[in-house]
Automatic annotation (TrEMBL), chain A:
Provenance organism: Linnemannia exigua
GO biological process, one term: nuclear-transcribed mRNA catabolic process
Protein name, UniProt field: DIS3-like exonuclease 1
Location of the RNB domain: 480-822
Record gene name: DIS3L
EC number: 3.1.13.1
InterPro entries listed in its UniProt record: Dis3_CSD2, NA-bd_OB-fold, RNase_II/R, RNase_II/R_CS, RNR_Ribonuclease, Rrp44_CSD1, RRP44_S1
GO cellular component terms attached to this protein's record: cytoplasmic exosome (RNase complex); nuclear exosome (RNase complex)
Protein origin, superkingdom: Eukaryota
Cofactor: Mg(2+)
Keywords: Cytoplasm, Exonuclease, Exosome, Hydrolase, Magnesium, Nuclease, Nucleus, RNA-binding, rRNA processing
Family, similarity comment: Belongs to the RNR ribonuclease family.
Automatic annotation (TrEMBL), chain B:
The protein's assembly and partners: Component of the RNA exosome complex. Specifically part of the catalytically inactive RNA exosome core complex (Exo-9) which may associate with the catalytic subunits RRP6 and DIS3 in cytoplasmic- and nuclear-specific RNA exosome complex forms. Exo-9 is formed by a hexameric base ring of RNase PH domain-containing subunits and a cap ring consisting of CSL4, RRP4 and RRP40.
Keyword Cytoplasm carried by entry: yes
Organism: Linnemannia exigua
Name this polypeptide is given: Ribosomal RNA-processing protein 41
Pfam families per UniProt: RNase_PH, RNase_PH_C
SUPFAM superfamilies, alphabetized: Ribonuclease PH domain 2-like, Ribosomal protein S5 domain 2-like
Lineage per the UniProt record: Eukaryota, Fungi, Fungi incertae sedis, Mucoromycota, Mortierellomycotina
Amino acid sequence: MLRKENVHFRKTNKNTVVKRVREVYLRNDIPCLSTQCPKEPPCHEVVKVESSLLSAEPAYYLVPDYSVALRYVELLEQEELTNIIFTETILQRLQSEDKSRTYKSLRQVVKDPRRRSVVFSNEHCKETNVLREPDESIEHRDWRALVQTAAWYRRHLHGNTDIILLSEEFKQEDVLRIDDNNAGIAVMNLREYLTKFWPKTAVLHELLTSLKEAILEEDLENKSQGSIIAKKGPSGTGYQEYKPLSELEAGVKSERFFQGVMRVRANHRDQAFIRGDSNIGEIVIVGSDHRNRAVHGDVVVVELLTKSSWVAPSTHISYNPEEVHAAAEDDEQSSSGVRTSEVKPTGRVVGIMSRNWQPYVATLQEGSEKEAGSFHLVLPLNPIIPKIRIRHHDAKVLANQRIVVRIDSWPVNSQYPNGHYVRSIGPAHDLDTEISAILIEHGISVSQTTQGFSEGSLKEMPINTPERPWVAEPTELAKRRDLRNHIVFSIDPPNCQDIDDAISIKEIGNGQIEFGVHIADVSYFVKENSLTDLEARARGTTVYLSDRRFDMLPKVLSEQLCSLRHHVDRYAMSVMWTLDSEANVLTAWYGRSVIRSACEMEYEQAQGLLNGKDVVPGLDATLCKQLKPSVVLLAKTMRKVRARRMAKGGLELESSEVKFKFKEEGGGISDILPKQPLEVHQIIEEAMVMANGYVAQRIYQGFRESAMLRHHPPPIESHFKMLLRAAESRGFSIDTSSNLALANSLRECASKSENDIEFVKLLKTMATMAMSEASYISSGSMGVDKYAHYGLALDFYTHFTSPIRRYADLVVHRQLMSCLLGATPQKTDNSSDFLKNGLKMEQVAGHLNYKNRESKLAQKDSTELFQTLYVLQKTRNPAAIENGGNDPDAEDLPFTETGIVSEIRENGFFVFVPRFGIKGPVYLKEKSGEISIPLSALKQSGGSEGGGVAGNDHLVMISGCEMDTDLMTQISVKVPPHALGSHASSPNVKVALRLKKSLAHRHTIYMTLIGLDHQGTTASADSKLGLGVSAARGRHMKGHSGRLFTKAGEQLKQDELKRIAQQDPSLAPILQRDLIQGIQEGQHKQQEQQKKGGKNVRKQQPKGGYVDPEEAYYQSRPESSLYNLIESFDRFRIVESNESPASFSS
Amino acid sequence: MSRTELLSPEGLRIDGRRPAELRKITSTTCVLSQADGSAYLEHGNTKVLAAVYGPREARHRALVLHDRAILNVELNVAPFSTGERRRRSKNDKRLLEMASFVKQTFEPVVIATLYPRSQIDIYLQVIQHDGGTLQACINATTMALIDAGIAMTDYVCACTAGWVEREAAIDLNYIEESSDTSEVTIAMLPKSSKITLTQMESRLHVDKLEEVFRLAGEGCKQMYEVMDKTIRDRAEDLARKMAV
């Protein structure tokens, strides 16, 4: 090793010049990291390095220079560009010039094994180190260093591969001057490079153009910067300069400042919050000035304001997505009216530790395309992101398009961040565009969405064509346990393509039962670190959207070879138990097997068999006869297992999920159906939970430090607040000390209020919301006591049963196999290393958690998208369509539905419509502050079940009402002249679903109140005044209207009417009229309803609760516990399981 | 703003070493003719000069021990040893502490009973500072004592190791030392692998301690080889000269 010293001079704070000497060692052993390294052994094997390797085939390697790396990162990030050699020179320079975001992006590229890109430590390599000559500019020295590196690679690889230097500053001649022997080293700028090698990839060219524009703008700005600052001054926007990093770090350490990830409330965008430490809890940041240029997701440092200026988080429902942009002006006003009792620590952002800027999907502000000039504001689709200023030469092209933008910077003197245009996705509100937007926002990669797998990875796939069908190999068969003589069957939703689990069960005498769970053996086909494996790891999970799915594995595997189809031999990973008659496990066997599924059953069919039918539609009679005993035995056994788990504290939770029925042709949604939970769902779920639990224990035995487990931490006590209050209102107490206590309390509540299923459902939903998020962990990363799964009440849990659609399961399969082979010495290749490396496993777990979460959120977004589409279809006025489709004056058709009040806010409440799983706001107070409720709300609606609304009462607003709410359990409206002191209450309301149309954002559903609906609750709700139904997050409509109509009988109403009239004579006529009309119409409707007999729009309650808590969590996620998630089993992402009375009581 | 990356993902430290590599060590003995024994040692850019006087008559009668010699260590850091010139007072607590560390390290190793009623003076001068001062001082002292012909049971070899980002690394330089790295210095008797000194001033997770210790121990063994070679070369050289 050669030792040398780097000397440089630096000015210190005290304005003295200091000479700094750094010792640097130049090495001979820096590996080239190329698979075509001619040395023997290859130089990257001599030195142990963890890095992806440059591939052997390509025609060239790319070496970007600083100008390219700094300003064209987005281009380098494109997945098309592979085999890039990043030199240490540019990375060091990025770091020293404080471009950590760029640096991180580049590191990300290197990390991604599919990109086959590496970092070459040229500054520490003896042969490529370059000294700066006297009077030489840094740029030139760095350039020489790059040329040296390129030349070194040429020499090292014996000239086998060309090197392309990418530079925007230097030209081919510049190489000549440095190195005479430069054949095979080409210098290109990006434009030349793209034209030569990617002439047809428009995306790259477009991106380059927009980047160039952004750079041009930046340069212009830099030139004129001095004058701007002089003119505007930093005070122009109310933003403040960030404090220096050292001060921030010191402040955070001394607890003067608080650090955390800033999140913006989705339903009130003026407010953001961070989670401080445990002492202080949540810190609220109100208004854009205090937010100080931080964007959702950034890690910020917050200083607390003085106590006197603390505010309570707003309890309003914000009126419109654009509000945040205007919010800066009126935030004083909004904070003045809040209750002092609930003030929270309030702070302002003083510094940013790291930015979390991502590509955002946005739309050009309306009308902006007509304006002159090349600067435009775009509105991000996600309203919690501020408007972004971009530069584009031809805004007309962008009008009404969804485009992807990136934020570049946010100078202190600019109201909005500066960004640049990346690419256009398509016209706004086009279905495909909106879906791509969802995918982009959730970071689901392009390669996954285009379904593409690289040629290399497809080559790895076994062949299965009609001409050459895949057959099991005899040698492989010999190694596997042959279970082909067992009756194996699978139960899945209809038309399931990727069947990853199957079940076998039979009695083996002595009352003993042999029970097997067979999982597709994906790990046999996908070898560790193969291209397919890397791609699958990057994708993490299959993404299911409402109308399509994006696979994790190539189709040949996911739909054919791995999928456990019937009547064909398939490899499987099996877990076989011997159970006694009480379903206690006597022995367990794990291993590879070969199976032949007898039947692909659908849930409905299995349920039919279970219900005692001898033949179910779609299945052969003999097959039914064969399968029926198995299904019945399975149900019997699993009920016992489930009962035992429930007794240990397993939770049954609630969610509302819907599925969409699509029209056969022409697109469009024909209906939204709530999921029908069947007992079979629960049975299959239990079998899978059992397999997962056992496998988790087994791999933990083999991999103490690195087993891939799934844990679910107990919820935070304070999250139960709402649940406790809701239960209290009914006189129940809930013990949240453990999962068992919670489960018991919930069960008790359920049994005591059997006639109010809604209430029980609500309690369960609230319990779901209190849950923490389940996540993958590597067993080494925390103590054994932390592995437990709270929701399922298991000490060990993992995901084992769906390797086709989850990467975690694939890892678990490999770990299990490695455990089973434990005795035989493993090859010392990378693969076994990877499974044993706790640190790496932790990284993978983190990545999978992220992917999992994003895919769930994408799924939720897509559900919402389709829900809005449905409402759009339903409310679209045929007249409007005739008039050319875009007649703004055309009144939407009313679309009325019954819902329950789920959350109360200062100016209205949220209503949940169980029929469609839609939740939306109802505003009682207009933006102007006027409170109004429709006349129809005062009307008896008890009798009317029909879809239509009587007359036009819902359009007549009674103004001048007063409103009061305690924000938790009740909201009451006083109708003028004055309240009469009596009230009725109902958690159920009738609402009209409407769509707030927006160009820039997604359409949002909101609702207007039509009336109260006493259908569900008249039995119980009427009993107590005020507290009656205060069940949950409350829902009291209170006013003299209610009372009138809850009392049965004409006579009573007449009496009431008289009383009102006495108190306020002026109101009498109105009341009289309404009342009579109401009654008549009610009757009329009822009759009509009976005649029609069909279209019942009344809320359909799913029978019993059903569980997919993990889904449930995303369905009903409260803002405050943003990233919590409760776990359960999600089989095909929609696990429904019926809470059958049998298991409930046992 | 960004903190410098002390260990790149490629596994190279800031000066191009890998975690388990020592800096370049050069040493010579017998550099001062006035002193009874002397040594000059470089650990990369850390340069230390050690001079040993004695055993000789004790200065202060009061301190004399009648059965053995007393050790006296004085440590001085040159004002020009760092980039910014900075004069340290003689009573700088850091220096006194470090001197006492050196003294404690050598007390059990020097066979003091052979030299009753006498004193051994060790003067250490740090000429250039680039991290790892204590280890350099101890190593230089060992060589100077040997050069002075003072009886010792074994060499004392010192080495530092610390937890840099995500790995244990050996022989930290100044940049690594000064960016909040946990650092352990140990001094070891290489033949018996006994440890006479461990010093750590920062917090280090107990799980990582073992790895850091192991690495520091290995560093000490390597130090021993380097020092032993210098001593033997010197001895051979002298022997050759005497023979002539």
